[in-house]
Input
Amino acid sequence: MPIYEYECRGCGKRFSVLVLKSGSAVETRCPTCGGADLERLMSRFAMAQSEERRMEKLADPSSFSGLDENDPASVARWAKKMGREMGDGAGQGFDEMVDQAVGGETSREDGSAGDEDL
Output
């Protein structure tokens, strides 16, 4: 069952559609504005990693680049990055706990604010 991603040309909203039958025609509308002028996007894919591989990635010295232990926001960004690498192992609400620990919301690595899925 493929999942297709679209961007509405009307309002710019990006969204995903689960297709229950592969090869069947997909007629969908934007969930935000109801528009039908959609562009199908190339999706990223995920590859499952073993627990051992994830731990090796976490131990890689390059994962510490940009970390300033004297800057709480830098430490928070690093902790969130490590939490994403761990997947479910970090537990639900991990990002929020990190934010509370440093006293507020931190910015993402790309410089934008917010903590939605990266």
The first strand starts at residue 3 and ends at 8.
